[in-house]
Write a structure and sequence with these properties.
The chain is α/β, with parallel strands linked by helices. The chain has 2 domains: 4-144 and 305-349, Rossmann fold (3-Layer(aba) Sandwich); 150-301 and 375-401, Phosphofructokinase domain (Rossmann fold, 3-Layer(aba) Sandwich), CATH 3.40.50.460. Helices cover 40% and strands 15% of the residues. The protein is built from 16 helices and 11 strands. The protein has helices spanning 17-30, 41-45, 57-63, 85-90, 102-117, 146-167, 182-191, 209-225, 237-241, 245-251, 270-285, 307-325, 346-349, 366-373, 383-386, 398-401, and strands spanning 4-9, 34-38, 52-55, 93-100, 123-128, 170-175, 195-197, 231-236, 291-296, 331-335, 341-344. A 7-stranded mixed beta sheet has the order 3-2-1-4-5-10-11, sandwiched between helices. Strands 7-8-6-9 form a 4-stranded parallel beta sheet, with helices on both faces. Strand 1 (4-9), helix 1 and strand 2 (34-38) form a beta-alpha-beta unit. The chain is elongated. The termini are far apart.
Length: 405
């Protein structure tokens, strides 16, 4: 029977998934394998009637540069369901290729370990993806999809900034990033936004709604002092995710949770919440400024991959074939800045408790410090001018809010 491989996609979309699928398909077809794309991620492996898409060169060639995923994705996480071992036996499967985050990788490892107990021996190789860029890859290499999502966010951000200038008002923008502020940081710095708020900034103090609001208003007042009556404030959704339960209760929202126990922040518009809080505070202070919310979420996940990600995904896809030929299994495919492929095991990324700590924005780097220095916010030299708008300007001092001084 002809040998085959199975490709599944878990989690949420990221630009470049189709590029990986295309490259992997072409590489294995060339070597005489059948390539089976399985819809709905792990849900398909635990279904009696899995939806299988037979991949051929024409399909692979057609999807290479497209956004989204030709394979339907799912956040399904198996618990008591029975694995469809017949799928692997009937198709002489030799490799399971999983595309997703660390949850997807660990689930793929458990599945192949279970199959081995059933005397079904297959390899599994994982291709890590997330637009959040928070997987701790070696040499701080980016995860695929991040740069394309950032590029799309910059396009929207520049348009919003132009609108703010044209209309002489403000926008409160929120960008995806559950635990790390890479997207918000990248978009805000690229668009020269006068204020950005990411969770990593609060390494010396607890994140509260009040502090976030005061940071935004600090920028509004600073710009007013300089006779600039417009701007965009970027707030990472990770700020929202890192709020204490007491702070979340102030918002009055009952969160739903996904299969992995993560709050489903996509169900809530963070920008609307923060904008309303900012507006309420502005009214309290008697400052007349219009602001509007903009949520950057699902708009970023399925855009067309830019050249950087097309190259990276091609390299990772070819890397899957390289590692398979070398007999590697249970690993992530990783590429360094020189384009060299190496296997990366979950144990390489896990801490002593078996958890993978997210890679955060390095707020102590020179680049980050330069970016923060060039934001617009109140500091001691502005206190006298700021008293036109607030009684106690020190409460809106950027560095004092963050306990930096």
């Amino acid at each position: 029977m002809k040998k085959s491989i199975v490709i599944i996609c878990g989690g949420g979309p990221a630009p470049g998934i189709n590029s990986v699928i295309s490259t992997v398909t072409k590489a294995f077809l060339k070597d005489g394998f059948r390539v089976l794309g399985l819809h709905e991620g792990f849900k398909g492996l635990f279904s009696e009637n899995p939806q299988i898409k037979e991949m051929d060169f024409d399909l692979a060639d057609r999807i290479f540069s497209r956004g989204g995923s030709t394979l339907i994705m799912s956040r399904f996480k198996p618990s008591t369901e029975k694995l469809n071992t017949k799928l692997f036996l009937d198709n002489n499967v030799k490799l399971l290729v999983s595309i997703g985050g660390d949850d997807t990788a660990s689930t793929a490892n458990r599945i192949t370990a279970y199959l081995q107990k059933e005397q079904i021996f297959i390899s599994n190789i994982h291709v890590p993806k997330t637009i959040d860029n928070d997987l701790p890859l070696p040499d701080r290499n980016p995860t695929f999809g991040f740069h394309s999502a950032k590029d799309e966010g910059v396009r929207i951000g520049n348009t919003a900034y132009e609108d703010a200038l044209t209309s002489q008002n403000w926008f409160v923008m929120s960008a995806m990033g559950r635990s790390a502020g890479h997207l918000a940081f990248g978009i805000a710095t690229s668009c020269h936004f006068p204020m950005m708020v990411i969770p990593e900034m609060f390494h010396k103090t607890e994140i509260t709604l009040d502090k976030v609001v005061r940071l935004v208003i600090s920028s509004i007042i600073k710009r007013k002092i300089e006779n600039i009556n417009y701007g965009v404030a970027m707030i990472s959704e990770g700020v929202f995710h890192n709020l204490s339960k007491a702070e979340l209760d102030k918002v009055g929202i009952n969160f739903t949770y996904d299969d992995h126990g993560h709050p489903e922040l996509g169900n809530v518009s963070k920008s609307h919440i923060f904008n309303m809080l900012v507006q309420t505070k502005l009214v309290e202070l008697g400052i007349k400024v219009k602001s509007r919310p903009i949520e950057l979420g699902y708009e970023l996940r399925c855009c067309r991959p830019i050249g950087f990600d097309l190259t990276l995904c091609t390299l990772l896809g070819m890397g899957v074939k390289k590692l398979f030929d070398e007999g590697k299994s249970g690993c992530l495919v990783s590429a360094n800045s020189r384009g060299e492929i190496t296997p990366l095991y979950l144990s390489d990324l896990q801490d002593e408790n078996g958890k993978i700590q997210p890679r955060l924005v390095d707020v102590h780097s020179e680049f980050a410090n330069l970016c923060f220095q060039n934001l617009h916010y109140i500091q001691e030299t502005d206190y006298e001018a700021a008293m036109k708008y607030v009684k106690n300007p020190s409460e809106y001092d950027f560095k004092k809010i963050l306990k930096e001084i």
